[in-house]
UniProtKB/TrEMBL annotation:
A Pfam cross-reference name: Glycos_transf_1
PANTHER family found in the cross-reference section: DIGALACTOSYLDIACYLGLYCEROL SYNTHASE 1, CHLOROPLASTIC (PTHR46132:SF6), DIGALACTOSYLDIACYLGLYCEROL SYNTHASE 2, CHLOROPLASTIC (PTHR46132)
Origin species: Urochloa decumbens
Protein name: Digalactosyldiacylglycerol synthase 1, chloroplastic
Biased composition (Low complexity): 495-508
Domain Glycosyl transferase family: 328-434
Localization: Plastid, Chloroplast outer membrane
Length: 584
């Protein structure tokens, strides 16, 4: 489609200064990556544009004059390109996507699945259920399938599954017991392999190929960094019309605690920036405790299991009728690894052993560091009572009045949200990961170890306030889904028709206040930022195709493609006859 200007014959051609200024303006994301300050680029663009300003004011219609130098340059470029009748159709790194005209489809891709009770297994499952509940879009949850040898290492109580269908039934039953309604979304599996050293699941092969092209409309990548560190396949933003990343984990905090952690964190930080830019249109960070990635904003898009809100309502009703609901003191619940707050907890108790004399804390958790944590507590003779891990919704935990969580490695602690939903006090660190909880009166934060002692004593000597209906709603998955729809811009994407989506996605419009004529800003010009992102994706693709590079950077051996056992379990083509992907 072309946009002819009434004054096209009078539009002067671009000079070198204007072309150079436009190149600089479009290259700002690349300069950011190189550490060049944005202000310096803006001043140079303004200087280059000012040389032509007098000439442009005299020769161009008033509709192309703008007080903002950036907008003025965009309109200047658009006017020249419109006068030629040229229209950019995309290309170079990217391809034109098929317009989806029927019911929109959302694919949620995550890095873990039940029965592994980790945040990236539980929260995407709830997200899929509540997104599908509206029936406005089809939803598919895409989770990793582990071969039986890996299942035995990951899943609790030696639980294993013989087929994906068996695991899907387990996941649905678990979910529907908690949400109270019949779920209506599809569950698909992609091959994954467990990495023992990092206690995480790495995709094997191209994860995007397990979503059919006809359903490749909207993708939600749970942990986009994790999914794409070693991704060797189709670029997500090429295959999907809209790609949203949700950052769950503070990887840099964990990595810094390892040997040579500072050096590792430096490289991981830049790799995360690369994959965020190359593979996502929008990124949501659950809290300020995460890395500040390109295209990102902070928003808590997680809710709590409805069962916890029901417990909170029941306890509030019991207290209103005069019953004693909280018969126990304080507890902590979490996976027993040092990075999950156990180091901070033991240090606090050791430092203020005399101040906390007589105050016993019950701890529930299992994990690789269980023996070391308990040994350290015994050596210091701390009042910490250790118990095996259990579900936070277990009846035995309802009677506790205070939940203590000193962790500063979390991004947004699910257990903290659950404790607040049950009407308990929460004592937690003054840390960006807890910013969302500050507005709740039962959340008591501390900055120093002395503050910690004061907050614990305060919580033990008074009763928590019942949650208001507004506070209960803020913790719910209904509210979390609403926040997600708004801040991911998914509501706009889903509400737009296929025609308006394809028409408006590549350009913006500017209107002449005098004539009412509408003009595309840079509709005919390739976006340099997109070209840079495509270049980064191509470089990443080339590097991740090398097994030597993958192994030297910590990848699980043999994860560029799925294994023979994966092909048998998931009924895929054998890896030796799998068609390799060499390009976009």
């Amino acid at each position: 489609m072309s946009f002819a200007s009434e004054a096209s014959e009078d539009v002067p051609p671009l000079d070198f200064g204007e072309l150079f200024a436009y190149f600089l303006k479009q290259s700002v994301p690349l300069f950011d990556q190189l550490g060049i300050k944005r202000d310096a680029c803006d001043k140079l663009v303004e200087s280059l544009c000012s040389k032509r300003k007098d000439f442009l004011s005299a020769s161009e219609p008033s509709s192309l004059r703008n007080d903002n130098v950036g907008d003025e340059l965009d309109l200047r470029i658009a006017s020249v390109l419109q006068s030629t009748g040229h229209n950019y159709e995309g290309g170079f790194w990217s391809e034109r996507k098929a317009v989806i005209s029927d019911k929109r489809h959302v694919a949620i891709v995550t890095t873990a699945s039940l029965p592994w009770m980790t945040g990236t297994a539980v929260n995407p499952l709830f997200r899929a259920a509540y997104l599908a509940k509206s029936s406005k879009q089809n939803v598919t949850l895409v989770v990793p399938w582990l071969c039986k040898s890996d299942q035995e290492l990951v899943y609790p109580n030696s639980m294993t599954f013989n087929s994906p269908e068996e695991q899907e039934n387990y996941m649905r039953n678990w979910l529907e017991e908690r949400v109270g309604f019949k779920t209506d979304f599809k569950i698909s599996f992609y091959p994954g392999k467990f990495q023992k050293e990092r206690r995480s699941i790495i995709p094997a092969g191209d994860t995007s190929q397990f979503i059919p092209s006809k359903e490749a409309d909207i993708a939600i990548l749970e942990e986009p960094e994790h999914l794409n560190w070693y991704h060797h396949g189709k670029r997500w933003t090429d295959k999907f019309n809209h790609v949203v990343g949700v950052v769950h984990t503070n990887y840099l905090e964990y990595i810094k605690r390892e040997k040579n952690g500072a050096i590792q964190a430096f490289f991981v930080k830049h790799i995360n920036n690369l994959v965020a830019r190359a593979y996502c249109h929008k990124i949501l960070r659950l809290s300020g405790a995460t890395q500040d990635l390109p295209k990102s904003m902070i928003c808590n898009v997680h809710g709590v299991n409805p069962k916890f809100l029901e417990v909170g309502e029941r306890i509030a009703a019991e207290r209103q009728s005069g019953q004693q609901s909280f018969s126990k003191g304080a507890y902590f619940l979490g996976k027993m690894v040092w990075a999950k707050g156990y180091r901070e907890l033991i240090d606090l108790y050791a430092k203020h052993k005399s101040d906390l004399e007589g105050f016993n804390l019950d701890i529930y958790g299992n994990g690789e560091d269980s023996h070391e944590v308990q040994l350290a507590a015994r050596k210091l003779n701390l009042n910490l009572n250790f118990h095996k891990g259990r579900d936070h919704a277990d009846d035995s935990l309802h009677g506790y009045k205070v939940f203590i969580n000193p962790s500063i490695s979390d991004v947004l602690c699910t257990a903290t949200a659950e404790a607040l939903a049950m009407g308990k006090f929460v004592v937690c660190a003054d840390h960006p990961s807890n910013d969302f909880f500050r507005s709740f009166p039962n959340c008591l934060t501390y900055k120093t170890s002395e503050d910690f002692v004061a907050r614990v004593k305060e919580a033990m000597t008074r009763d928590p306030q019942p949650l208001t209906p507004e506070q209960r709603y803020d913790l719910s998955w209904e509210a979390a889904t609403q926040r997600f729809m708004e801040h991911s811009e998914l509501d706009k994407v889903l509400s737009s028709s296929s025609s308006s989506n394809s028409d408006c996605s590549s350009s913006s419009m500017e209107q002449d206040g005098n004539t009412g004529r509408r003009m595309r800003k840079s509709a005919s010009a390739p976006n340099i930022s997109d070209v840079v992102d495509g270049g980064l994706a191509f470089a990443h693709y080339c590097l991740t195709g090398s097994e030597l590079f993958r192994l030297s950077t910590g990848a699980v051996p043999g994860t560029r493609d799925y294994s023979k056992q994966h092909s048998l379990d998931l009924r895929l083509l054998p890896p030796q006859v799998q068609n390799p992907i060499y390009g976009w």
